[in-house]
């Protein structure tokens, strides 16, 4: 049960120190950090609670991010229930190559699907810490960002009336198509974008994984990936043309391509099962600068998107949220502006580091299928180097785990 707004229905404007727009991992983490410091805030979300707790998303969480959640009292279920991954496997040239990154670094990944994390964060914010949150709001607008008295308005889903909320700061955590990014003055915004020119068919199968770790198939027919989700459900990816129709991929074609692209000497083929999800993801990245305008601070996909090639997106959103939540607490409880002043610069250092790694990894995944013998040859050289050069292996492991980025 969510906490009602004070004086609800009075028609009078409400006031909170911070309004958080968007209840994804970034927005809910910011909200929880504020509530833990007794900073009153309001989270606005256009979808229902049920929708955000069930929306299918990947769930690779780097160890530093999980420890950041733990530090803030937000990782109890994650640490109890998440799978720990310490290795991955590349398959190319008909062979399998296991990459034990845990042995090289002493670190690992947590695999915890995003809907479970969002469920945990909503419960902690709304039900445990008593935070204000409104679901199903419509037509959110942000006003007077260039002043020290910004305000936010929205349409109440129950009454259809406009509600006004005054605040000191707005945290824009509502994604690429949200109102936060759209509220930036167009003449002041630079969006750096990169399109890979490929798509991934994202699949969820009612079938056990064929290996105990993530698989990367680098094949002339296109990339294929496997990510274990549970003993009964497996996530698969197949490279496809951008904008492809999932209906072009019937059951038999999907499993035929997975067998071919993930095939290697001495390994069993993937276990077939019913496909319960099929959607095409077009691979692209973007970075929005500035991430700050007046009293509006962007976080997560509102500010940047990294293609799922390297499984970095949720980790970047959490990094933003840790920095922004802590900076807002410092400003509102002690008057310390240093965190807010350095927020964008601190975020963007990690963002660009992860973008560069995503580009590098894309060539490893997709170069053999480019139809260019030169690219195919250099891609195979990169792959072989990972398993013959300790220095190359260590560098890859650090970037793959996010441990190379010290910010």
Account of the protein in words:
With 407 residues, this protein is α/β, with parallel strands linked by helices. It is built from 13 helices and 21 strands. It has helices at 25-36, 49-54, 63-71, 76-81, 101-105, 114-128, 179-182, 251-261, 313-334, 338-341, 343-366, 373-386, 390-401, and strands at residues 14-15, 18-21, 41-45, 60-62, 83-85, 88-92, 95-99, 109-111, 132-135, 138-143, 151-155, 162-166, 169-172, 190-206, 214-217, 224-228, 234-240, 274-289, 292-293, 296-298, 304-305. The strands form 4 sheets. Strands 7-6-15-16-17-14-18-21 form an 8-stranded mixed beta sheet. A hairpin with a 7-residue loop joins strand 10 (138-143) and strand 11 (151-155). Mean pLDDT is 93; it is low at 6-10. Residues 18-357 form the FAD-binding domain. Keywords: FAD, Flavoprotein. This is 4-hydroxybenzoate 3-monooxygenase.
Give the assembly state of these chains: single chain
Widest β-sheet, arrangement of strands: 7-6-15-16-17-14-18-21
Please count the helical segments: 13
Low-confidence runs (pLDDT<50, min 5 residues)? 6-10
Major sheet description: 8 strands, mixed
Mean pLDDT score, rounded? 93
Give the helix/strand layout:
Layout: E1 14-15, E2 18-21, H1 25-36, E3 41-45, H2 49-54, E4 60-62, H3 63-71, H4 76-81, E5 83-85, E6 88-92, E7 95-99, H5 101-105, E8 109-111, H6 114-128, E9 132-135, E10 138-143, E11 151-155, E12 162-166, E13 169-172, H7 179-182, E14 190-206, E15 214-217, E16 224-228, E17 234-240, H8 251-261, E18 274-289, E19 292-293, E20 296-298, E21 304-305, H9 313-334, H10 338-341, H11 343-366, H12 373-386, H13 390-401
Parallel strand pairs: 1-12, 2-3, 2-13, 3-9, 6-15, 13-20
Antiparallel strand pairs: 4-8, 5-8, 6-7, 10-11, 11-12, 14-17, 14-18, 15-16, 16-17, 18-21, 19-20
Helix pairs in contact: 1-6, 1-9, 9-11, 11-12
């Amino acid at each position: 049960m969510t906490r009602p707004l004070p004086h609800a229905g009075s028609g009078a404007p409400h006031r909170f120190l911070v309004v958080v727009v968007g209840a994804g991992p970034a927005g809910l983490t910011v909200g929880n950090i504020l509530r833990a410091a007794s900073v009153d805030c309001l989270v606005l979300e256009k979808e229902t609670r049920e929708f955000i707790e069930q929306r299918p998303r990947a769930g690779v969480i780097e160890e530093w991010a999980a420890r950041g959640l733990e530090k803030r009292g937000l990782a109890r279920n994650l640490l109890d229930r998440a799978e720990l991954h310490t290795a991955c496997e590349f398959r190319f040239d008909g062979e399998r190559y296991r990459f034990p990154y845990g042995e090289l670094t002493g670190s690992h990944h947590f695999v915890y699907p995003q809907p479970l994390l969002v469920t945990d964060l909503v419960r902690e914010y709304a039900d445990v810490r008593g935070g204000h949150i409104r679901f199903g709001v419509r037509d959110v607008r942000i006003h007077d960002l260039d002043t020290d008295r910004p305000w936010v308005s929205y349409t109440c889903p129950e009454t259809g009336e406009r509600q006004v909320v005054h605040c000191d700061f707005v945290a824009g955590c509502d994604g690429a198509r949200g109102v936060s990014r759209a509220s930036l003055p167009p003449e002041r915004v630079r969006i750096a974008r990169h399109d890979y020119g490929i798509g991934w068919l994202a699949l969820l199968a009612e079938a056990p994984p064929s290996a105990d770790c993530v698989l990367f198939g680098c094949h002339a027919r296109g990339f294929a990936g496997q990510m274990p989700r549970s003993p009964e459900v497996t996530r698969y990816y197949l490279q496809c043309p951008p904008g492809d129709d999932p209906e072009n991929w019937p059951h038999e074609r999907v499993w035929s391509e997975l067998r071919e692209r993930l095939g290697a000497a001495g390994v069993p083929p993937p276990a077939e099962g019913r496909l319960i999800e099929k959607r095409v993801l077009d691979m692209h990245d973007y970075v929005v600068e500035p991430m700050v305008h007046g009293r509006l601070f962007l976080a997560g996909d509102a500010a940047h998107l990294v293609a799922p090639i390297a499984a970095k997106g949720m980790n970047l959103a959490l990094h933003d949220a840790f920095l922004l939540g802590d900076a807002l607490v410092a400003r509102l409880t002690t008057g310390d502006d240093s965190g807010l002043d350095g927020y964008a610069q601190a975020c963007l250092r990690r963002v660009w580091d992860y973008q560069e790694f995503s580009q590098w990894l894309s060539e490893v995944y997709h170069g053999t299928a480019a139809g260019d013998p030169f690219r195919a040859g250099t891609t195979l050289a990169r792959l072989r180097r990972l398993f013959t050069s300790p220095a190359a292996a260590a560098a890859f492991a650090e970037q793959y785990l996010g441990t190379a980025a010290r910010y």
